[in-house]
Design brief:
4 copies of one chain form a homotetramer.
Chain A: E1 2-5, H1 11-25, E2 28-33, E3 38-43, H2 51-55, E4 60-64, E5 84-86, E6 89-91, E7 97-101, H3 108-120, E8 125-127, H4 145-158, E9 162-165, E10 180-183, H5 191-198, E11 204-207, H6 214-226, E12 232-236, H7 254-261, E13 266-268, H8 270-274, H9 277-290, E14 294-298, H10 316-338
Parallel strand pairs in A: 7-8, 7-14, 8-9, 9-10, 10-11, 11-12, 12-13
Antiparallel strand pairs in A: 1-3, 1-4, 2-3, 5-6
Chain lengths: ~350, ~350, ~350, ~350
């Protein structure tokens, strides 16, 4: 961290600031006095330093953070790609996983039928919502514990690992046999929940908040990792922008940016992004082209009757057409890179 | 709700849709066939109808919602201003309440000293964070239960009611003697928490999420109210925009908009919006001018050493200068309107 | 256009409104009176009706536009893809064009050397800025007319058609021999300029404004087309969002959305979007995957010394690696779709 | 400007960079080598240095700009408030000017009638659009030159100076007798137009672009000022955000921010911001409270029939009620500060 001081500040004030920084944060501080600038270089672990507080001091002109505030998620600390293994399905480091299933679990028949269909079409994992975060208290809120049981039945029937969203710490005991926990976009900064899943030893699918910056998203991952659970998969699902022609704007650039900043895998959720089923296929191909580590896609056997988020779900046969194109792109790039 | 059908759809398809709507949602449906448009008018309680699902149907061109999806928060259902009484301090219906205090409770001396100062300067209520939602897991996370006890001591000492943020359902038992519960911006769509505070009979200060629309904000209030707790005060604290010259952009227009859409009071948090103490005074005067129902302001006796959010806190004497100007504006408008 | 009237409005007021609509806009108006809603259906050319004015009337509850306000750009009026032919290089309808070249023309050697390199690597057209819209008046503003001459020399040398940005109506005479005119993001709503290029019979590359909605973008195309010039190619180059980790957020979803709304081709500019050269390759592959009709890419023989926008330019050999992968993806998708 | 180099870069590379900086930009460069950081301090006029180019160099970790890139608009260079005198009406330095009038000039009677009404209600200047930037080519585009003549008649009739929007350099000769030129939001980065009005000696009202940052806005002012015309008044008129409940989000914080960064006056346009006439009164009071240097407000004698932007125009009597409250607030604050 570099602190640029205002011109003309007294030697005493500078010495007092150096002393405060050394004692409050246990850092080494180096002073560099130039013709026009006086700079302080801070050496040590600056993750806990709030640069805004320093910047509010009278003698400070500007604070420049050199170290990122995330450590365990930082690629600099872990240059190799992390490969997250979810009961045998791998994400990251060249592994591409496809998760598919209904938005909400609605019935035994529905979830098992969809599970078989998506497996046949190339899916590796099953998704399904039991606890649903709905904007309106008057909308269907999910089947709850019963929904999780139906998912587990579908897992037994098809052999696919499952992922489902946990909305509150109190629900965690119900998720013991669920292979991966999903933290939804609206809970990305539910810090109590992040810390609790950080104490588990189970993969976590961390969706990006609708208005979360790259750094805030990584800090949310850091909350989980700092408690000891390093099995985090990031999921980009669209951000909120001024554009209202689609529900959210898929930030496809997040894929190469995350691959640069962190060693964690990142997958794409094209269903929630645009909120329209006919955008899911093209957005999935963009994800395959740009090198995402996987996809999570809503599939429903009767999208028009789906109790929630029907408009964005694919028919199983549409999903099969999608995986075919995704695999074609991935293979073409692999072949091109081998030559 | 009005459904515009695509031109050229068959009579059978239209009848099937009418039948589905009547049976699924228990609504009356009226058909209007024109030269170029065929319209369906839906009459009844359409709050649970997901317009996106209807819009995804092949024969549907467009869906227009006439009724707002919120009911208890809707001014149409409750034309009079709600006056929320927090242990004697009133907000709304012409009552203007000023809440002030430190971002975080740090010590007995700190919180009592600040409480006395802000009371002397015109504050009606004391704020103070015990559980702090921090972006980084490595930042100070608040004093927790001990912080709440210190707040209660300050309340006893000064007679001012208190408000503090609850971050998780599990913390609720600790808040029994706290006069108003604050739901923070990051938890505005923590639906489990909203439902639980909805079961209490205690005022709730509901901050707007950083990227929440007016309607989503009112739906969050509706979550609380639909459980029976109608004592909700809205708080605008800045939204996330492209502008990075300030931390967040205070959406001052939210005041007249909320006064139109809902009967609930709305107050302004100028401290968290801009994130710079020197913006707090002018933003508070804007709030007084536009007719907000109150203010919540961070005050610290030593802002430069504050353990969190120091840069945005006012000195007690700056706060006193602020309340003086706020009262001057309110009185001027009252006098002008009496003439 | 459907107008929903407020409940309880008088018959006289309704008749007066119908009369006003018929006479002011020359439309047919159909009245539909239901139990709870009274609706007016407007039939005819509603493109010139300002729905906000109607919505501000006392007796009106809501206005729903059924027809899009753009006509010539609308796919409904022109279901086939438009193929834009720029001196032999085609965009749209399955044709994929690659435009490459330096941000600014800097010298004869520079532009000819880059032109040869990008042609060898698979580019179809040459780009180069002569008039540069720079945020600061103190930055290099481009070589002007001389830059255009150097571009024309490079065209003669390589046979590639050229595209360059025109910033003002007064510069148009200089662009007579330029094959395609570029309207930059900052000028997307410079309506005087749009009308003037609409009077020409020359392809126009219309970049999306940083905060332009899909509809505003199409209305800008409509300005050009309504004057008679229907050779418009749309270019998505990143929109302004809250995220500051990259310069702009590439809205890749614009590709399938535009393919639905309009018959005009859409290409992607990955260089200006992220503003970092190492993002250009992955973003280009996303564009190829999602089915864009082309790319426009900045290439420089010495990016570190480029007088403007150096950080986002590729070396010629990086560009060659990019085109190889882009072609691989396009071929894989073609093969997959033939099976 | 401070450049932080990556750790472990060779002495030769550092010396080469220093040499390049000194010769390319004519700056003095000071080297500071610490245990963990190597820093370069750049002294001199860094306004023309593109920090993104420096940051893209292999050996550079980060670039921190200390000096703002704007000079003539910078308050540091001109600590006193600028007072802009528009034919006798003053803005800034404690002077508060009110501009009012119709969105578009529609007829002689209309503009003169409104001019008299707003003058009687306390307006200082008359506004009126002759050339209108409309989103749709099919909407009314303004009366053009004839509209300017009618404005001049209204000026003669009432004695009020006038302001009107110029959309293109070619229109400038028509504006010779117009007292202040307005640059609209969509043209804020029409650099050709900015330079041309910079060559005049006439006040310019510079509206903020819908997605322009504070710095880009000031750089647009700098374009005008760098050509010699220092009579610039800034106008905040709402920015584009995710919120669609109002047309644009008025960024009221821009007032204190601009008062800090620049010596130029800033006024508020509440009419275009929210786009709804019933928001104009409360937003104007927020502007008065926060200390804006003036207002520009749309007033129409028959808002429902206004040819453009009718929904946001006030009736003359509504405008009179507004000015009364605005004056009450301003006087209350003056009195409070005198005590």
């Amino acid at each position: 961290m570099i602190i640029t001081l205002k011109s003309g500040c007294s030697k005493e004030a500078v010495q007092e600031l150096i002393h405060d920084l050394e004692t409050t944060y246990n850092l080494d501080v180096f002073l560099s006095e130039g013709a026009e600038y006086t700079l302080l270089g801070l050496v040590g672990d600056t993750a806990s330093v709030d640069s805004r507080i320093i910047e509010s001091l009278d003698i400070v002109e500007k604070v420049t953070r050199i170290q990122e505030p995330y450590k365990k998620a930082n690629r600099k600390m872990h240059p190799e790609d992390s490969i997250i293994d979810v009961s045998g399905v791998k994400f990251g480091g060249g592994h591409f996983g496809i998760i598919a299933g209904p938005c909400s679990v609605e019935s035994r028949e529905q979830v098992i039928s969809i599970a078989k269909d998506v497996k046949a079409a190339g899916a590796d994992m099953l998704r399904g919502g039991a606890f649903k975060p709905r904007t309106s208290p008057y909308s269907f809120q999910g089947m709850g514990a019963e929904g999780l049981e139906l998912l587990l039945e579908a897992k037994k029937e098809t052999g696919m690992p499952i992922v489902s969203e946990v909305m509150d710490v109190s629900q965690l005991p119900l998720f013991e046999d669920v292979d991966m926990l999903q933290i939804g976009a609206r809970n990305m900064q539910n810090f109590t929940l992040l810390k609790e899943v950080g104490k588990l030893r189970k993969p976590v699918l961390l969706k990006r908040g609708l208005a979360a910056t790259y750094q805030e998203w990584l800090m949310a991952a850091e909350y989980i990792m700092s408690e000891g659970n390093e099995q985090v998969i990031l999921c980009e699902r669209g951000i909120r922008t001024f554009e209202t022609g689609v529900r959210n704007t898929l930030d496809i650039t997040a894929v190469p940016v995350m691959h640069e900043l962190t060693h964690l895998p990142i997958i794409i959720d094209p269903s929630h992004a645009a909120g329209m089923s006919r955008m899911v296929h093209p957005l999935s191909l963009a994800a395959a082209g740009i090198g995402a580590d996987g996809l999570i896609i809503e599939v429903h056997n009767d999208p028009k009757k789906a109790l929630c988020d029907g408009p964005q779900a694919l028919h199983p046969e549409e999903f099969a057409a999608l995986t075919k194109d995704v695999f074609a792109i991935r293979q073409a790039l692999e072949t091109a890179h081998k030559k």
